[in-house]
Amino acid sequence: MIKKDVSSVQEALRDVKDHMVLMVGGFGLCGIPENAISELVRLNIKELTCISNNAGVDDFGLGLLLQNRQIKKMIASYVGENEEFERQMLSGELEVELIPQGTLAERCRAAQAGFPAFYTPAGYGTEVSEGKEVREFNGKMYVLEHAFQADFAFVKAWKGDAAGNLVFKGTARNFNPVMCGAARITVAEVEELVPLGSLDPNHIHIPGIFVQRIFQGEHYEKRIEQRTVRQKV
Amino acid sequence: MLDKIGIAKRLAKELKDGYYVNLGIGIPTLVANYVPKGMAVEFQSENGVLGMGPFPYEGEEDADIINAGKQTITTLPGASFFDSALSFSMIRGKHVDLTILGAMEVAENGDIANWKIPGKMVKGMGGAMDLVASAENIIVAMMHTNKEGESKLLKRCTLPLTGVGCIKKVVTNLAVLEITDRGFKLLERAPEVSIEAIKNATEGTLIVEGVIPEITV
């Protein structure tokens, strides 16, 4: 089998540079590649364009990169829980492109799947469709959206093996599968790197062909944004 | 007047057996607490879960199982997890039967604005644009007026739009209204709320025909 496991996050991010376009998995703080984000902060790589559904919170997730002024442009669908983000955006320090969540997912998947563009009904008639080609199909209007072009995709999975196969857990899956293979280089960090052959081929969510580097992650905080419980009656 | 719980209870009356339902953040999420006994409904959350259950008990929270509002949840027997592209296939491909979401403004032509106040609040649209562009059955749940006492049911939206001509029904703390080609048609009024009060709180065209029953929850 082709082996793509690397020994550390440092090895996995060795050639990430300023000005690159990065895809980052996760929804809120759920399923974010915590180790890759820490390494990006440590490396102090700047002028980044980040494609991710959210921007973390002020002191965790992509919020750490924002705090450190490493991001020049953010492409996301919802950035509500991050005050530093809103401040940087409203002041003009940070360029922001807000796009519909379904479109964000599909622009990643289109890149993974080799489609240059696709039509979607989302955003037609709103500022999202301004300046874009629109077309009618069967009496309904659609907007033309293009596949992303990114340098690196950083994803987080529950389990993986040296062949790059990935299995996700719960809602930590979200954008991670559609970002695999959607950038020039996909780096996957996993909670558990298991021996080759121990993952049932029937239960693999992302085949290793879409992953270029995989490493065993560590010290996952897995922060909960809104701890919400119900009372025992 | 209804409070948030009252609005949620009234919205729950729109659920039908066998419905797949998407609930937006805010008031809509409360609807999941009032599913009529014996009714089979599955709640879909855009971040990749179908078959959402109630919030977990203290100590049983799982960081890997959250809803679209980033709250910890549980799942019911028969639930499934999937990625964001598949999630929006469910939404965009019209597999979800009912969508309930909040709004800042709804216009009498069915336009909705719920994602941006230029220069002040630019949190982003999340999945809202996909939901309103695709769903056939969309209900807005919101307060009838904003914090400044201004009407949120308008002739035309003033804020950046989320979708055009897509809203069919609105449930507020004052009333239940249907959007028709003549304007907002009043269907029900909240307990102790007069038609006059609803008229004063509605900037858009309000159509009042016949006896308007009280909302019962």
Q: Which structural class do the helices and strands of chain A define?
A: alpha/beta
Helices and strands of chain A, in N-to-C order? HEHEHEHEHEEEEEHEE
Which residue ranges of chain A are poorly predicted, with pLDDT under 50 across at least 5 consecutive positions? none
Largest sheet of chain B: 10 strands, mixed
Order of helices and strands of chain B: HEEEEHEEEHEEEEEHE
Q: Beta-strand percentage of chain B?
A: 15-25%
Task: Summarize the structure in words.
The complex is a heterodimer of chains A (233) and B (217). With 233 residues, chain A is an alpha/beta fold. In chain A, 19% of the residues lie in helices and 27% in strands. In chain A, strands 1, 2, 3, 4, 8, 9, 10 and 11 form an 8-stranded mixed sheet that branches. Chain A is globular and about 50 Å long. Chain B has 217 residues and is α/β, with parallel strands linked by helices. Chain B is built from 4 helices and 13 strands. In chain B, the strands form 2 sheets. Chain B has a 10-stranded mixed sheet, sandwiched between helices. In chain B, strands 7-6-9 form a 3-stranded mixed sheet, with no helix packed on it. In chain B, a hairpin with a 2-residue loop joins strand 11 and strand 12. The longest helix of chain B is centred in the first third of the chain and has 9 residues, at 4-12. Chain B is globular and about 50 Å long. The mean pLDDT of chain B is 95. The chains are: A alpha/beta (233), B alpha/beta (217). Chains A and B meet through helix 4, helix 5 and helix 6 of A and helix 2 and helix 3 of B.
Blueprint of the fold:
The complex is a heterodimer of chains A (233) and B (217).
Chain A: H1 9-12, E1 21-24, H2 34-43, E2 48-51, H3 63-67, E3 71-76, H4 83-91, E4 95-98, H5 101-113, E5 117-120, E6 134-137, E7 140-146, E8 150-161, E9 166-167, H6 176-179, E10 183-194, E11 213-216
Parallel strand pairs in A: 1-2, 1-8, 2-3, 3-4, 8-10, 10-11
Antiparallel strand pairs in A: 5-7, 6-7, 8-9
Chain B: H1 4-12, E1 19-23, E2 41-45, E3 49-52, E4 75-81, H2 84-92, E5 98-101, E6 105-107, E7 112-113, H3 128-134, E8 138-141, E9 153-154, E10 169-171, E11 175-180, E12 183-189, H4 195-201, E13 206-207
Parallel strand pairs in B: 1-2, 1-5, 5-8, 6-9, 8-10, 12-13
Antiparallel strand pairs in B: 2-3, 3-4, 6-7, 10-11, 11-12
